[in-house]
Amino acid sequence: MHQPQASSPAAHERCWHVLRTTYGRERKAYDYIVSQGGTAFCPTERVVRRVQGKIQKLYKSRLPNLLFVYGTLSEVETFVFDNVNLPFVRFYYRYFRQGGVLCKAPVVVPQDQMDSFRIICQAEDQDVRFSFHQIQKFREGQRVRVVRGPFAGVCGRVARYKGQQRVAVEVESLFTAISAYIPAPYLERLP
């Protein structure tokens, strides 16, 4: 179980909250939240398919049923508890024990992790991966920042995945976003 963080954001602080949707309706929730003036991020990738002899270009969710919404807890709650327009949206919770009692709290993603995650998601490279399992890929585990190329600005850990050097960004113990191959000269060590 993920342990509670010592510095959970105050209810009035704006931060990124992880929401879950049912039946692949994350794009529908995203569209509604944005139309109401909210800030949201729904990671998608462009897919080209041939359907009945015709080529279709569409966007597919990179993380089915997950959506990221920026705001204070009360701002995000207005969407989560809107059972008329968004009955299929709920908080994604982390569970922990506090004084022998099982507690839950909405998952919040720190801004620096969200920034790196968004850079990886917006890359058009088809070799970007996401894993919901703990990956035993950090040979060195050195913290780095990518300084050149399509992933410039990503901060994470050096990872070996499928025999290639990449940068992995773990997002609040939910999943790991893994970049495509990154040459060593494109990396800068972080303390």
Explain what the structure shows.
The longest helix is centred in the middle third of the chain and has 12 residues, at 111-122. Residues 1-7 and 135-139 have low confidence and may be disordered. The protein is globular, with a radius of gyration of 18 Å. Strands 10-14-13-12-11-15 form a six-stranded antiparallel sheet, with helices on one face. Strands 1, 2, 5, 6 and 9 form a five-stranded antiparallel sheet that branches. A two-stranded antiparallel sheet has the order 3-4. It is α+β, with helices and mostly antiparallel strands. The chain folds into two domains: 15-108, Alpha-Beta Plaits; 110-189, no CATH class. The protein contains three helices and 15 strands. A hairpin with a 3-residue loop joins strand 13 and strand 14 (175-178).
Please summarize what this structure is.
With 191 residues, the chain is an alpha+beta fold. It contains 3 helices and 15 strands. Strand 12 and strand 13 (164-171) form a beta hairpin.
